[in-house]
Amino acid sequence: MLAVQSGVGAAARRVPLARPLTVAAQALVMLVLLTLVFARAQAFLGLVPGPEAVRHLVELLRQGGEDVGRYATPAPLSDGIRLMLVGGVLVIGLIVDTLAVTFRTAAPAGLPLLALYSVAAGLSGGGSHWLWFLVAAAGYLMLLLAEGRDRLAQWGRVFAGAARTPGGDPGGAVAPVRTGRRIGAVALGIALVAPLALPAMEGGLLGPGGAGAGPGSGDGGTISAVNPLVSLRDSLNVDEDRTVLSLRTTAGDASGLYMRIVSLDDFDGTTWKPSQRHIVGVPDPFPTPAGLDGDVKRAEITTTVSAAEWYAQDWLPMPYPPSGVRIDGSWRYEPVGMTLVGDHGQNTRGLTYRVRSLDVQPTAQQLAAAPDPAPALKREYTRIPKSLPSVVAQTARTVTEGAANHYEQAVKLQDWFALDGGFQYDTQVEVGSGSQAIAKFLKDKRGFCVHFSFAMAAMARTLGIPARVAVGFAPGTPQGDGTISVGLKDAHAWPELYFEGIGWTRFEPTPTRGTAPSYTQSSTPGTTLPDQVRPSQGASSAPSAAPSASQSCTPELKRLQECPGPSAQAVLPQHDGGSGWPTALAWTLGALAVVLLPLSPLLWRRRTRSLRLGAHGRGDADTVPHTLAVWEELTDTAWDFGILPDESHTPRRAAARIVRLGHLDPVAAASVHRVADAVEQVLYAPRPRPAAGLAEEVRRATEGLRSTASRGTRLRAALAPRSTARLAWAASARWEAVRARAVGMRRAALRRAMPRRGAGRAEAEGG
User: Fold this and answer.
1) What SS3 class is residue 455?
2) pLDDT at 172
3) Rounded to the nearest 5°, which phi and psi values hold at 501?
4) pLDDT in the model for residue 142
5) Where is the domain boundary, 344, 367, 390?
6) How far apart (Å, rounded) are the C-alpha atoms in residues 367 and 102?
7) Which of 251, 246, 322 is nearest to 282 (CA)?
8) In a domain, 557, yes or no
9) Which of 117, 175, 498, 571 is the least buried, fewest Cβ under 10 Å from its Cβ?
């Protein structure tokens, strides 16, 4: 279809048709082609697009837009999406052909080409192959080269500057063209080689994967990941919950079977992201998880995972902590996060694999009695940047007041987010950016799992608890055949806190999502702390006058937000942290723009009048420019009141015309004539007589014009003066001057180059 459209353009240019008619002919052919492919049944004679065909195409475009919003990448190829793809390519082809060939400006044609290539490369997952970049860039350079050669050919025959080589081209390579080819080859080489020396970014954690772990093989290499926020939010907001994984497990209770992809442990105050880690070969079996003691109860479970054919993920979803995996393909192991990552383009698309993992079951007593972790681990995982707002740490101390140990602090934080803090789960809330994002979430109390997990992990670090964030999938939905279906809407993030002797331990602060771990659930009525080893400091033994919230609403009902009454609000200090000043500044600037934009003609006119009637005429040297400026102000003022200037008139006739059309009284008329006399002096007299008080004469004439004009004319002259058209004239004249100067410089350069080329040819012929 693109070839037919381009052929019609070439034929129209050979006729030749006018440029607009050429573009119109190509657009009409494009519509006919789209009708033939997508709306043949609705077209007249199966080819001519009538109203029914146009309505059908519009309906397909609407359906395609809905499909784009409904499905995650890669979406099924519906008729609407197919029309958007084919029609989009044809439109871009028409734009490129129009710019580069019809109007002979190849450079701007690179913008639509770049848009087409960038969108395709961005959606391909991990970038496109270097060959496709080479093809696209070479095509654009060929356009530029052809345009340059065509421009040179317009000046006549261009000599090569060197003798023709035996066996070479009959006409010889033109020197500028040969130089252009060399420059293009060097530019392409740099573009292909330079990225190899720069850090690379891989695909999203929850979206389709890309090139895997990157270069390297054997037991070395590193792996880094990108921030998962956008793909996580998009997964939660899809209309159709597509199945990602299908699980079959030996676990007796699958409500805690989280499929973990990767952990985010680098916190810069703005967001959490994975650290760059070394990767090694996959061990068998996996090493014991960091910090796990032999006294903690555990059970090994086996989970068979089948990934969907469309789900191409570089990182392998697994229950945590894994103890072994059986999988086909090329995979590498990251020891710190106990994660598997694909190597050399390996991903999860259509794979079935088996994971052995540990179901660690610590008790509340073991968590409460956990000793301090190693200094190096604590230093790394409690690091917080200086940019973190102080309200985060202050809120953490307020929420956990009275806790006897890090475990009780962690449970209090979890329950405050999930039960008692008045937070609402909302996937439509923006993720947010900047150092104030967490503080804003604590104030607004609306968000989804990213907000809850990020905030709890940051607050835990301020309390000295090692913390990180895990990203993956919450427990899926059991099916009738004994399997568990995990969909896009199960995408989830949760905090992991480190306790010596237990290791990295999952917590669940997000309301209505996932399941709270058993070691954090209360077993004593009236308290949110499970199996407390010791009472919290400052606890009161007196009975409460009001009924306990747990008597009417259990913690699980609170988590599901199914309690009859509103959850209690924790009394916390509310600090804005200065986050509102950018918004206030933006609103202020917007209001000023709204006010000043309609008044800009008035302000420009006042400024111009002030300059023309100012003190330009002080001294004999300023007599001529001051007089001409005053005359220009007088004619512009008359123009503002509806008297169009006529440059063919002499100053005396122009003054008489202003007096006649403006119906001026004798005093104002005399002022106009005195200004005209002064202009005649500076234009025609050998020695102009200086005239004083011309600015006052113009002011009197202006008052005379205003007194005889109607109210509407006076308002028009003040708010929308006609003389502001001089701005457009001045800009056009300046552009023409710049253009003429550039053309002159180019012609001068070519004239200087032509004799040298002729001399070179004469020397070659003489030799």
Assistant:
1) helix
2) 45
3) 100, -25
4) 81
5) 367
6) 75
7) 322
8) no
9) 571
Is the residue at 487 inside a domain?
Answer: no
Same domain, 705 and 751: no
Q: Write down the pLDDT at residue 223.
A: 47
Q: Domain range holding 320?
A: 222-367
Pairing of strands 424-425, 446-447: parallel
Structural contact between residues 233 and 207, judged by C-beta atoms closer than 8 angstroms? no
Q: Encode pLDDT of 212-266 as tens digits.
A: 444 333 445 554 443 454 456 556 666 667 889 999 999 888 888 999 998 888 8
CA 767 from chain center: how many Å? 63
- Kindly report the three-state secondary structure assignment for every residue of 650-688: CHHHHHHHHHHHHCCCHHHHHHHHHHHHHHHHHHHCCCC
Answer yes or no: do 327 and 356 share one domain: yes
Angle at CA of residue 353, ends 350 and 357, nearest 5°: 140
**Predicted local distance difference test score (pLDDT) of residue 585:** 61
pLDDT value at residue 596: 65
State which residues of the chain have pLDDT below 70.
69-74, 122-129, 151-240, 270, 430-435, 522-597, 615-622, 755-767
Contact between 659 and 667 (Cβ < 8 Å): no
Report the run of H or E that residue 267 belongs to, with start and end.
strand 266-267
Does 343 reside within a domain? yes
Does residue 399 contact residue 284 with C-beta atoms inside 8 Å? Answer: no
Same domain membership, residue 680 and residue 636: yes
713 and 738 fall within a common domain: no
Tokens of 602: 């008035």
Q: Tokens 């199996």 appear where? A: 531
Number of domains in the chain: 4
Listed in sequence order, the DSSP H helices in 174-264 are 175-193, 229-236
Q: What pLDDT score does 221 carry?
A: 53
Amino acid type, 627: T
H helix or E strand, kind and range, residue 212: none
Residue 199 CA to residue 95 CA, distance in Å, equals 35
How many other C-beta atoms lie within 10 A of the C-beta of residue 687? 5
Q: Is residue 391 part of a domain?
A: no
- The values of phi and psi at residue 595, to 5°, are -80, -45
Distance, in Å, from the CA atom of 521 to the CA atom of 529, rounded to the nearest integer, reads 7
Phi, psi of 228, rounded to the nearest 5 degrees: -90, 5
- Same-domain check for residues 752 and 693: no
Q: In terms of domains, do 666 and 755 share one?
A: no
What the block records as the tokens of 47 is 């080819």
Residue 325: phi and psi, rounded to 5, are -150, 140
Tell me, yes or no, whether 179 and 326 share the same domain: no
Cβ atoms of 485 and 246 closer than 8 Å: yes
Q: Specify the residue for token string 């383009």.
A: 345
In a 13 Å sphere around the CA of 15, the CA atoms on its Cβ side amount to 14
Contact status, residue 257 vs residue 319, Cβ threshold 8 Å: yes
| 142 shares a domain with 37 | yes
pLDDT of residue 730: 77
The alpha carbon of 740 is separated from its chain's Cα centroid by a whole number of angstroms, namely: 39
Q: Is 721 exposed, middle or buried (0-12, 13-18, 19+ CB in 10 A)?
A: buried
477 — phi, psi (to 5°)? -105, 125
Q: Could you give the CA distance from residue 628 to residue 611 in angstroms, rounded to a whole number?
A: 12
| Local structure of 623: helix, strand or coil | helix
Residue 430, class by beta-carbon neighbours within 10 Å (0-12 exposed, 13-18 middle, 19+ buried)? Answer: exposed
Contacts 24+ apart (CB under 8 A), 652-661: 652/676, 652/677, 652/680, 658/634, 658/701
Instruction: Give me the pLDDT at residue 368, please.
Output: 92
Rounded Cα gap, residues 19 and 583, in angstroms: 47
Q: How many CB atoms within 10 Å of residue 625?
A: 13
- Structure confidence by residue, pLDDT tens digits, 168-189: 444 444 555 566 666 666 666 6
pLDDT at residue 77, rounded to an integer = 79
Return the C-alpha torsion angle 753, 754, 756, 760, nearest 10.
Answer: 130
Q: Is the Cβ–Cβ distance between 746 and 154 less than 8 Å? A: no
**Is-cis flag, bond preceding 285, omega within 30?**
yes
Residue 432: what pLDDT? 56
